[in-house]
Structure formats: C-alpha cells, structure tokens
Amino acid sequence: YDWLKGAGYDTVISERWALVAEESALQCATLGAGSRVAVEARCVQAWALARRAAESRDGGAGLAAEARSRLVALLPVIEARDDVDAASDCLGALGEFAEAEGDLELAIDYYRRAVARSTRINGAADEHVVQTRSYLVDSLRKRERWTEALVELDALLLVQREHDRGFSAWTIRFAMQRGEALLRLGRLDEAVRQLVETDELVRDRIGPN
Predict the structure, then answer these.
(1) Which end of the chain has less neighbouring CB within 10 Å, N or C?
(2) Handedness of CA 174, 179, 180, 182 (dihedral sign)
C-alpha cells in the first residue's frame, strides 16, 4: 500500500501506478476486483484524489467531493476484511473532511474506527496508528472532551515510552497536551507535575536554551 503511493508521496505518480495496479488485478484470473491489490489500488486512488483536492487552488471542492464519495464507497470493503489495512488512510481522510466541515463528532467517530481497526491489525505502536490517534486527541480537545482526551494521551505516552520514543517530538506534544487536559479537569497538582516533566523532556531534547 505504501509502495503504491509512490516515491515522496507524489500524487501524480501514485495515481498512475494505482490505476495500473487495479487494471492488472482486474485482468488477472487469480486476482480480480476483490483482491487485495485491487482494493489497495482503489484506496490509493482515493487518497491521491484527496491530496490533489487539498493542494488545488481551483476546482478543489469538486475533487474533494469525488474523493469523499470514493472513500465512503470503500469503507464497507475495508472494514469487512483483515488483509487490507487502509483504515488509517481512508477513515482518517474522512475524519479530516468531517473536521474541515466543522462536524467534529463525525470526525471523532471516523478517527476512533481508524485507530481501533489499525491497532487490531498492526498494533498500537505502529506509527500510522499513533498519528491517527493524535488526530483523535485533537478533535476531542476541540470538543472539550477532556476526560476522553486524557485516556487517549495516557495510552499514547505509554506506547511511546515502551518503544523508546520518550524524547521524540510526538512524545513532547502528547505530554504537553496531557498537562493541558489535567488542568482543564481541575487536577492542578497532577497538571503541574506533568508540565514540569514536559519541560524536562524539552530540555533533554533541545537543551536549556
């Protein structure tokens, strides 16, 4: 799936190779429309269209609508099988569309589904899962659902530390957001301890200046 996206995530190259891959799968007697190759190729085409919509100055709305339509059509296929994990990309892209339209509740639903499916298939430590989970946290924060955001942040920080990512930029981001969530929930002593720890992480990463 990642290979089909092309070197450097070039949308033109990605879409071109995805079309070739889907056509080849359809012509192959042992593959067909329901094969992993064909489904992943369709996912890449939808992903590339969404990227083009985001990068377009003119006609972006039409491209975005087409991309969203394709992604919605792919959902029943993706969520019904385990051999194709495009949940983080397809569900995540739908979450971004919903977020851009101001429908944060729908965005949260898409992000949760993406996280749950990809975690089951690839594990919680997978970088795509961590990234999509960060989108979920951001949406929960925008909705001021601090208790739920804190649960996700605790899980993310545990994953980061268990896999020697304690000083990564992601970990610092999650630690700062955890401090904010604790503060919003009125857990002031815990918030102060978390923010002090975050400051230490920043100093360890970039130095005291």
Answers:
(1) C
(2) positive
pLDDT in tens, 5-28: 554 467 788 888 888 889 999 999
Which amino acid is present at 2? D
CA–CA separation, 32 and 66 (whole Å): 24
Q: What is the pLDDT of residue 83?
A: 72
CA dihedral 196, 200, 202, 204 (to 10 degrees): 180
DSSP string, the chain: -TGGG-GGG-HHHHHHHHHHHHHHHHH-TTS-TTSHHHHHHHHHHHHHHHHHHHH-SSSHHHHHHHHHHHHHHHHHHHHT-SS---HHHHHHHHHHHHHHTT-HHHHHHHHHHHHHHHHHHH-TT-HHHHHHHHHHHHHHHHTT-HHHHHHHHHHHHHHHHHTT-TTSHHHHHHHHHHHHHHHHTT-HHHHHHHHHHHHHHHHHHH---
Residue 91 structure tokens: 């569900």
Q: Give the pLDDT band (50/70/90) at residue 50.
A: confident
State the CB neighbour count (10 A cutoff) for residue 82. 9
Query: Each residue of 54-107: pLDDT tens digit?
Result: 777 776 788 888 989 998 998 888 888 877 666 667 888 899 889 988 999 999
* Residues 6+ positions from 23 with CB-CB distance below 8 Å: none
